[in-house]
Amino acid sequence: MQERPPKQKGLMYVRVQINGKAVMAMLDSGATHNFVADREIQKLGLTLAQHSSSIKAVNSEMKPIQGVACVELKVGAWIGKCNLMVVPLGDFDVILGVDFMLLANAMVMPYLNGLFIADQNSTCFVQGTYLQDSVRPAEKKDSLMSVMQVKAGLRHGEQTYLAALIEIKSDVVQEVPDEVAELLQEFKDVFPPELPKKLPPR
């Protein structure tokens, strides 16, 4: 039986880059937008566009949004343009909400302690950091599983699976990367000539 990772409690953060500058971002699937603390404007080199909205957090009064910054955001292997609303945030530097998750096809995976990005051009898994006490973490390097780590696991006889999520579109032909083709060729004896059409009997 496979051992489960230890249960984590607290807020999950991932290391990201905004305009080329490293910062820890809290993941919040309950936040409709992405936010950045106003104290980070200069550090991250943000250019603000006017915004007329206000924001109300739990147990606080309504506060005007100071502006919106369109930034280059890098999370793991994913890079894209993202809007951040600039607001006074006492406890956090950056909050990535539903806006980011929809844009990057991302999902928080508490069981695996990280963030899975299913974007077809840059699918990756970014290791998260949980914090209970300190809400503004020291920077921690993001983690992707490297080929070296997989090789080490194979050497130690650990059961290893290689999986990739691919969206199949009937009108789009997509070539398999050379590395994947080599793996498929190497282990062709493992795969049946045709996949089963139904589940095996119990």
Task: Please explain how this structure is put together.
InterPro entries: Peptidase_aspartic_dom_sf. This is Aspartic peptidase DDI1-type domain-containing protein. With 202 residues, the chain is of the alpha+beta class. It is built from three helices and 13 strands. The model is unreliable at 137-144 (pLDDT under 50). The chain folds into two domains: 11-144, Acid Proteases (Cathepsin D, subunit A, domain 1, Beta Barrel); 148-186, no CATH class. The chain has a six-stranded mixed β-barrel with strand order 1-2-9-3-8-7. The radius of gyration is 21 Å and the shape is elongated. It has helices at residues 98-104, 147-155, 178-186; strands at 11-18, 21-27, 35-37, 48-49, 54-55, 63-64, 67-75, 78-87, 94-96, 106-109, 114-117, 124-127, 129-131.
Q: CATH class of the largest domain, please?
A: Mainly Beta
Q: What is the CATH architecture annotation of the largest domain?
A: Beta Barrel
State the shape: elongated
Strand order of the largest sheet: 1-2-9-3-8-7
- Mean pLDDT, as a whole number? 79
- Poorly predicted parts: 137-144
SS field, number of helical segments? 3
Question: What's the quick description here?
Answer:
With 202 residues, this protein is an alpha+beta fold.
Per-chain topology:
Layout: E1 11-18, E2 21-27, E3 35-37, E4 48-49, E5 54-55, E6 63-64, E7 67-75, E8 78-87, E9 94-96, H1 98-104, E10 106-109, E11 114-117, E12 124-127, E13 129-131, H2 147-155, H3 178-186
Parallel strand pairs: 2-9, 3-8
Antiparallel strand pairs: 1-2, 1-7, 1-13, 3-9, 4-7, 5-6, 7-8, 10-11, 11-12
